[in-house]
Every structure is written in C-alpha cells, then in structure tokens.
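Example S7 (structure tokens).
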C-alpha cells in the first residue's frame, strides 16, 4: 500500500516527534533528524494501515490527534495548531519503538517486504545521523511513548506469538 494515502498522518506524526525530541546542531542536524523521523513514521503507518481501505478509513475518521501524547511528554497546550489533529498515537508509539530499537526496526521493514535502501537512515544511521537525532533515538527519553503500544507492535510483527501464549 503506497504511503501517499497516509501523507497527512505521516507528516503530522513525524512533525510531532521532531518537535517533541528536537535535533541539536543547526539546519543539517534538523534535516537529518526529520528524515529519520519520517522513515520511522512511514514504516509504522504502513504497518498500522496495511491496506488502501485502512488508509481511507483513517482519512475519513481521523487518527485521534496528539492530545494524549502531549500530556505524556509534558508538552504545553497546542490546541491552535490544526496539524496536531492528524497525529496518530499508535503510529507515534510504534515509530518511537523503531527509532530506539534497531533490531525491531529491521523486523518492521522486513515485514513490509520492501528493500532496506529507502530506510537506510532508520536502519543504519551513520555518526552524523546519530548525533542529529540523539534525543529522537534515546530509549530512556522515548520510554513513555514506546510503552503505550509496544505490545501491539510486537503482535503486528509476529501475529502467531499471541496464539502461542
């Protein structure tokens, strides 16, 4: 399923991540951080909404917004920013899981069945990528967000594990 149908969700959720866990070091660092966030969010959104019908339904109903995520991370009230209504809590949580766990990110990309080249900065960040996204990839800082939906990501990646339990 092409990610273009999910563009509003991907754009808003990546924006939420980079505003919540910003880059440090100037314009290049900000761009590298944004690329990594977009790659993680794209993978998470494609896993969350695997069919065209899923993407259409989220487009009609909306993903729920950033309210709960803002409360968890201690962000100030941002009701005047309409893009925040397109933030998907589950996608943000799954993306945070992928950013903080390279093995999980590799499993997620493999589950999509695509090549790893388009997700290189997510899967194999170089030293500049790591410095640029130090906050965005910090497991301790991401814990409140990753814990929200970590179990459902694991279930999505290995649906048989729920049956074996």
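Recovered sequence:
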């Amino acid at each position: 399923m092409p990610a273009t149908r999910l563009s509003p969700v991907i754009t808003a959720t990546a924006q939420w991540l980079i505003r919540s866990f910003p880059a440090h070091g100037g314009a290049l660092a900000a761009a590298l951080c944004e690329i990594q966030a977009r790659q993680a969010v794209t993978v998470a959104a494609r896993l969350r909404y695997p069919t065209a019908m899923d993407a259409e339904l989220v487009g009609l109903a909306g993903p729920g917004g950033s309210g709960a995520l803002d409360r968890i991370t201690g962000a100030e009230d941002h009701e005047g920013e309409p893009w925040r209504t397109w933030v998907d809590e589950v996608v943000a949580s799954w993306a945070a899981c992928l950013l903080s766990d390279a093995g999980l990110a590799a499993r997620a990309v493999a589950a999509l069945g695509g090549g790893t080249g388009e997700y290189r900065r997510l899967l194999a960040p170089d030293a500049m990528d790591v410095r640029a996204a130090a906050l965005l990839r910090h497991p301790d800082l991401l814990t409140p967000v990753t814990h929200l939906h970590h179990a459902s990501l694991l279930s999505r990646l290995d649906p048989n594990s729920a049956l074996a339990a």
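Notes on this example. Residues 3-164 form one domain.
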